[in-house]
Amino acid sequence: MAIGYKQLLAEADAEVSSLTIEEAAARLEDPGLVFVDIRDPRELERDGLIPGAKHAPRGMLEFWIDPESPYHKDWFASDQTFLFYCASGWRSLLAAQIAQRMGLKVASLRGGFGDWRRADLPQAQREPR
């Protein structure tokens, strides 16, 4: 029998560390933590993002992480911890699990950008491309 998204999320949650929005906000200026927004570019343009966050679309993540890929992004080759987030925390939890399996130090933002916005934490705007 196939497994559903709830089981996938539970398994990822057991493997990946998560930060609350309060814990993440306290580390916003931490040079050892890179915020990575995996949402679709249209979501960033519509809703904004966490100041200083890198953008790595979920569909390209594995290719951007892998140094053997022609799409590799050098900033993923650092020894920093990558804090993945999306709108609610589900996509980013699964993305963080994959990134961790690929060798990165990771965490996931519990509650995602939605909780971040509702808490009125710092936000930046992204201009349409």
CATH topology: Oxidized Rhodanese, domain 1
Q: What fraction strand?
A: 5-15%
As residue ranges, the low-confidence spans are none
Largest sheet: 5 strands, parallel
Task: Report the count of strand segments.
Answer: 5
- Give the CATH class: Alpha Beta
Radius of gyration: 14 Å
N- to C-terminal distance: 43 Å
What is the H/E order?
HEHEHEHEHEH
CATH level-two architecture: 3-Layer(aba) Sandwich
The CATH superfamily label reads: Rhodanese-like domain
Mean pLDDT: 96
Large-scale geometry: globular
Arrangement of strands in the largest sheet: 1-5-4-2-3
Work out the count of structural domains.
1
Structural class, by secondary structure, is: alpha/beta
Number of helical regions: 6
Give the helix proportion (percent range).
25-40%
Task: Characterise the protein shown here.
- The structure is a single chain.
- The protein has helices spanning 5-15, 21-26, 41-47, 61-65, 90-101, 112-118, and strands at residues 18-19, 33-37, 54-55, 81-85, 105-109.
- Helix 5 (90-101) links the parallel strand 4 and strand 5.
- Helix 1 packs across helix 5.
- It has a single domain, classed as 3-Layer(aba) Sandwich (Oxidized Rhodanese, domain 1), CATH 3.40.250.10.
- The chain is an alpha/beta fold.
- The chain has 6 helices and 5 strands.
- Helix content is 37%, strand content 15%.
